[in-house]
Amino acid sequence: MSLPAAPRINPSILAADFVNMQAELARIASADFVHVDVMDNHFVPNLTFGPQMVERIQATSPVPLDVHLMISDPDRWAPGYAELGAASVTFHLEAAADPIRLARRLREIGARAGVAVKPGTEVEGLFEHLHEFDQILVMTVEPGFGGQGFMPETMPKLRRLAEETRRRGADVWLQVDGGIAADTIGQAAEAGADTFVAGSAVFGAGDIDAAIAGLRETASAHHRH
Ligand code: DX5
Ligand code: ZN
């Protein structure tokens, strides 16, 4: 499978109409991935859906799946999402018992392995293990809900991660998620993000293709080379 080039725009279906999922997925065919938020009402105080729903999304989506697991015990549950065919599976560092072993397992199954950090979680511990991951997700809101305001205080962490990634020549995508919109995507791109999740900014737009293209354009204009 050839991978989409940066900047990648991944609409979050958390902002979609859940009872019209097939039609909602058809609307984002010009995106790079569909971002699928799995929440267990335990790791985060909200509940979405599990593997049965994600399997149907996988069968229906015009673009590959970028699964974001906001769940406890990902060591046990994350491999199932890779097995059902998700292109990318991201679990939370705060929830994993053995993040490196889990990342290796995800890759073994054939998925890209991602690790996510909440706004208050530091990333220095990941520096010497960057090669174990295909994606690092820096949350730009507290995980759990769509439509929250972007937290600019997460940008220094993203910047350090981008510098370290460059320094080590690691082939890892840097993703941001939460409050990403026309007025915030530029600063995230400038800080080093290359993969952008946007829920309300995409599904809340009148013209979805124009919204995706606009976000991509703004990210490109601000990206550090
Ligand atoms: C939040 C989720 C996000 C959310 C983003 O916990 O991980 O993916 O859908 O929504 P917006 O773009 O509306 O902040
Ligand atoms: Zn998400």
From TrEMBL:
InterPro entries recorded: Aldolase_TIM, Ribul_P_3_epim, Ribul_P_3_epim-like, RibuloseP-bd_barrel
Binding site for substrate: S12, H68, G144, F145, G146, G147, D177, G178, G179, G199, S200
Pfam families, sorted: Ribul_P_3_epim (PF00834)
Enzyme category, top tier: isomerase
Keywords: Carbohydrate metabolism, Cobalt, Isomerase, Manganese, Metal-binding, Zinc
Keyword Isomerase: yes
Alphabetized NCBIfam families for the sequence: PRK05581.1-4, rpe
Family classification: Belongs to the ribulose-phosphate 3-epimerase family.
Protein name in UniProt: Ribulose-phosphate 3-epimerase
Record organism: Microbacterium stercoris
